[in-house]
Amino acid sequence: MRILFAFGSALFAGLTSILAKCGIQKTDFTMATAIRTIVVLLFSWLMVFLADSQLQTASIDSKTLIFLLLSGLATGASWLCYFRALQIGDVNKVVPINKSSTILTIILAFVFLQESITVYSGIGVILIGVGTFMMVEKKDIQKPVKEGKSWLFYAIGSAVFASLTSILGKIGISGIESNLGTAIRTGVVLIVSWVMVFVTGKQKEFKRIPGKEFGFICLSGLATGGSWLCYYKALQDGLASVVTSIDKMSILVTIVFSRLVFHEKLSKKSIFGLADIVAGTAVMLIPSLFR
């Protein structure tokens, strides 16, 4: 069952990007992020109570709280960049770059957390890096830059901030239960996203959100929550390395649905790039299979 829950996590994670893209055709990405975060926050606290870790709230020390707050700020920045990239770019281009945060996370973990880089993780990093590079076409960079709407910059920003989220979050949850740490971090994201809404004067956009897009935004939040619940259940019963690797396969779900829903096509070069990313993720899974 743990494998099924892991694949369920990947399925919902893949659907999140598609639903989010459907919800920001006319809706401002800042407002969409703020609305979606409300739904995600509800799910994160649901997970806290399912894990019965709410009683640890009073015992959180200042260091843990600071790093959780910083992790929340990084998450908020990553989500804002990601939504903006999805709004102006193709899903099958944005998602691979966002998933490349794995590379930077491994490097930062080596530098700041002294985590070793194995042969398998090294090969995986190279394959994912090459695959991501192959999926970005030259025209995808030149045309948006000339138009002043480069989704690439936002996609890279989402990956960088996602990596910082992982490192800061790793330090932040060292002293508390992980689900409680996630809930606190998501609360910070909620505050950041709504502050951004009011700072940019987008609060007036709420009344103008098409009903259909509002539904997709909420469904995107529900998909994220569903992914987290499946991920949590899989982690309870299985190895973290196995579950995490399967969860990363959500990129395949996203690519398939982007073809079906938005009719986005991959070039031969991009297909080889996607194969490299999947292969790199699979290589990282190898050590856990022999434990």
UniProtKB/TrEMBL annotation:
InterPro entries: EamA_dom, EmrE-like. The keyword Membrane applies. Keywords: Membrane, Transmembrane, Transmembrane helix. Pfam families: EamA. Residues 3-136, 150-285 form the EamA domain. GO terms for cellular component: membrane. Coiled coil: none annotated. The keyword Membrane applies. The chain crosses the membrane at residues 30-52, 64-86, 106-130, 151-171, 183-201, 213-234, 271-290. Belongs to the EamA transporter family. This is Multidrug DMT transporter permease. It comes from Solibaculum mannosilyticum.
